[in-house]
Amino acid sequence: MKLPSFEGYINGLVSTVFGIPSFCVPSWFILMLFSVELVHYGAFRFLKSNSKILIGAVVFYMVGYWLNLKLDIFNPLKGRVVGWNYLFLHEAITMYAFYLLGIYLRRKKFLIGKVSLKILAPGMIITFLIVFFTYKLNAGPFNFSAYDAVVIIFASHGNFFWFPVSAVAGSFLILFLGKITSSQKTIAWMGQNTLILMCLNGIFYHYINGRVAKWVLETLSGSGLTVFWVGCLMTVASLGLCIPLIYVFNKFVPQLVGKPKLSGPWFGNFI
Q1: Which three-class secondary structure state does DSSP give residue 114?
Q2: Could you give the 3-state DSSP secondary structure of residue 80?
Q3: What distance in Å separates the CA atoms of residue 52 and residue 175, rounded to the nearest whole number?
Q4: Are 134 and 165 in contact (CB under 8 A)?
Q5: DSSP 47
Q6: Each residue's pLDDT tens digit, 130-139
Q7: Chain-centre distance of CA 110, in angstroms?
Q8: Where exactly are the structural domains of the chain?
Q9: How many other C-beta atoms are found inside a 10 Å radius of the C-beta of residue 257?
Q10: pLDDT at 121
């Protein structure tokens, strides 16, 4: 898709209508969540008990994994884009398994309330080590052959066993880290405005990140440590540019950034 061009904008609009946000690729995750909620609306009425929730998680994972591995529904390398994918519903089946695990943990009040650092710190270390020592064990098969790695947007999961092991361990790592930093008001505020940050990241994804990556590879060593520090600097810089816009959007158009019940100077409340 070539931009700016009339053809590029038309193709981008068509792709976006079919659930592939061409003008802000990072926002695919929001569409995926929407599709997961659709699956949840239809399925959860049959999964009321905790045991059924866990069984459902296993079943949805197995069905979703097999469906995407065998049919390879959304794969630009094979010309399967518009017409094959709609709102990532095919991958939402797989992702619903993790959604159900979250519901189960919520019911069990996992990390809800006050939790001792003596539990959180070891939990974070253990889950980090699990991720560190298992993610390289996932050697495929990967649907999206351009990368020998998990790429959720293309439903490319890799190994049937190692993918959920690393994914669940990584999720627990984030939960432990989130609980440790929950008292930090700045981090909590950024979490509450994730929707805005995710969409604004599209500007960096499309126009800046690629140029910076090219400069790093051509000018610096390109080592893992170099990439790490450049990534940290890019993160700080992008947040520094995006955070002021969060205040602007919340003040003038809160209805368009996930707060439809609020009124603003330009629009009244939508709900």
Answers
A1: coil
A2: strand
A3: 24
A4: yes
A5: -
A6: 999 998 899 9
A7: 22
A8: 1-110, 116-183, 184-271
A9: 18
A10: 94
